UniProtKB/TrEMBL annotation:
Cofactor(s) recorded in Swiss-Prot or TrEMBL: pyridoxal 5'-phosphate
Reaction equations catalysed: L-serine = pyruvate + NH4(+)
Official protein name in the record: L-serine ammonia-lyase
Pathway(s) of this molecule: Carbohydrate biosynthesis; gluconeogenesis
Length: 319
């Protein structure tokens, strides 16, 4: 347990923001990578979830519903703060992630076919047990914690690129930009086909619930985009963008070659736009992106990936 005089310190670390020569050369933009894969839990989730857990450090128990990374962040935070943790995971969660959750001391419950059902079971458990609910993305404390990723940047970018699942990272990015008076910096919000609840919501002009998650990027698997994330598309220059699972697999492999970092599909989605030429197309066609030169890419991380999994995906998509 963290000592009393240490308890107010953030549970996340200040991550490197590293210039990528290979990706800059490939994409034609000046690309800086914010390496959130370096966080203690393996992803950016340590920021927002760690912040919320710290604010509730006297709780009897933390309960989180998660496909992996949010749960790992909550489990890490609970272990650091000496608070028991129960994580409800969807049936799609890999044994790799479940074992990591258990290694952090968390109790793991398989709670539904997809995150949405899993979340309902977590909320019922919270109501019955008097525990504190730690949502994976939809809470002001989560966004406040995630906003620290922008607070650490040395200078103003022309564009921030991030992956979107439930929208907690994007909400934090936008909040961070506003705090620094960078309100006009656009955000490229990237999803995969088959896990594109933000894209479909923007097209429909309202929140949309997907019938199922059909992408390999299962940690982007919120069937309905968070309310705050959707509302922000009306007030901030946010450009939703889609990439294919095939491009994601190619990107994981290329990024591993170029930067010696293995990322999961949900993270690779945002990186893919720099490898597949999508950003160049958008810059040429979208006035909001006309002056983009310096790009901050949030490498959001994620622990649900192995070389064997990558090889399986490469075989599946013949890449």
């Amino acid at each position: 347990k963290i000592a009393t005089n240490m308890s107010a310190r953030p549970l996340h670390i200040v991550t490197p923001c590293k210039h990528s020569r290979p990706i800059s050369k490939t994409s034609g933009f000046e690309v800086w990578m914010k390496l959130e894969n370096c966080q203690p839990s393996g992803s950016f989730k340590t920021r927002g979830i760690g912040h919320m857990c710290l604010k509730n450090k006297d709780s009897p128990r933390f309960v989180c519903s998660s496909g992996g990374n949010a749960g790992l962040a909550a489990a890490y935070a609970g272990k650091q703060l000496g608070v028991p943790v129960t994580i409800f995971v969807p049936l799609t969660t890999t044994n790799l992630v479940i074992e990591k959750l258990k290694d952090e001391g968390a109790d793991v419950v398989r709670g539904g076919a997809a995150w949405d059902e899993c979340n309902q079971n977590a909320l019922k458990f919270v109501e019955e047990s008097g525990s504190v609910y730690i949502p994976p993305f939809e809470h002001p404390l989560i966004w406040e914690g995630n906003s620290s990723v922008i607070a650490e940047l040395d200078s103003r970018p022309d564009l921030v690129i991030c992956s979107v699942g439930g929208g907690g990272l994007m909400c934090g990015v936008v909040e961070g930009l506003k705090k620094r008076n960078w309100d006009n910096v656009p955000v490229l919000a990237v999803e995969t086909h088959g896990a594109n609840s933000l894209y479909q919501a923007v097209q429909a002009g309202k929140q949309v619930t997907l019938p199922a998650i059909t992408s390999i990027a299962i940690t982007l698997g919120a069937k309905t985009i968070g309310k705050q994330a959707f509302e922000l598309t009306k007030t901030h220059p946010i450009i939703p963008c889609l990439v294919s699972d095939e491009d994601v697999v190619k990107t994981i492999s290329s990024f591993l070659d170029d930067e010696k970092i293995l990322v999961e599909p949900a993270c690779a989605a945002s990186i893919a736009v720099l490898y597949n030429g999508k950003l160049k197309q958008l810059v040429a066609s979208n006035p909001l992106l006309a002056n983009v030169k310096k790009v901050v890419l949030i490498v959001c991380g994620g622990s649900g990936v192995t070389i064997d999994m990558l090889n399986g995906w490469k075989e599946k998509f013949n890449v």
